[in-house]
Specification:
Helix content is 37%, strand content 19%. With 287 residues, it is an alpha/beta fold. It has two domains: 119 residues, NAD(P)-binding Rossmann-like Domain (Rossmann fold), CATH 3.40.50; 137 residues, 3-Layer(aba) Sandwich (Rossmann fold), CATH 3.40.50.720.
Amino acid sequence: MMFERNNIGIIGGDQRQLALAESIAGDGYKVFACGFENADLTENVQKANLHRTVSVCSTLLLPLPVTIDGETVKAEYAEHPILLNQEFAEKIQDHRVFGGVTERALSMCPRLADLKLQNYYSREDFALRNAVVTAEGALQYAMQEFPGTICGSKCLVAGFGRIGSQLVPRLRALGADVTATTRKPQTAARIEALGCHFVPTDRLGDGGNYDILFNTVPAMLFTSDVLAAYPHGTLLIDLSSAPGGVDMAAAKKLGIAAMHAFSLPAKVAPRAAGEIIKRTVYEMMKE
């Protein structure tokens, strides 16, 4: 291989990877972007095919997630699909490779396991920073979809993990009456310390007269039975990972205005999301 250590290749992605490529180039690296034929890039980033990218770059960054369909690398701006197969795995061997949500890619292309593909999505520092962007995106969605104001609204946040713990104080700061669910007494104390209410997660089915529901738990919490306990017209924003935690068919039938809000950082703040990926990968490179 004739690649150089200061060359970094971005293979596939969405708006986050566009911002990521530009940001890394701004740090002085020479950046090659594969799968961005239909994207507008500055002269700091060079478009290249897969062969060229792997030939000159020692470090390769795959998107978040690496794949959606299990057959191709996620590449929203690509002219042609980048197949996720053994040939692809062979091309990127001997490189340092980083990707986000790598599990499906590894299951569909086991050869990738030999490459020690590093998953930046699994790191706590990434998750915490990404939760901030997700929480702000959730507020944006709520402001767009709710006909009232956040101030004075009654909100229920299912889950007080990374995302919930960022969302609850932001809703409270905007003047909402906020309730959050938890399974742990110590977490309930944290929720109350923020001036909010709590209910046990297993009591979601008790319902309540809420204006907006936010789900942050990656499990099917909002079943048809649970949804039936909430008023017709309630807005429900599902922030959990795909496939989500809401029975969407039941929600529609019951008149609950439910919506998936997957991959919010890419949709509402791609530049910030790209910076989070960059900071995490830089830390992993130093380690």
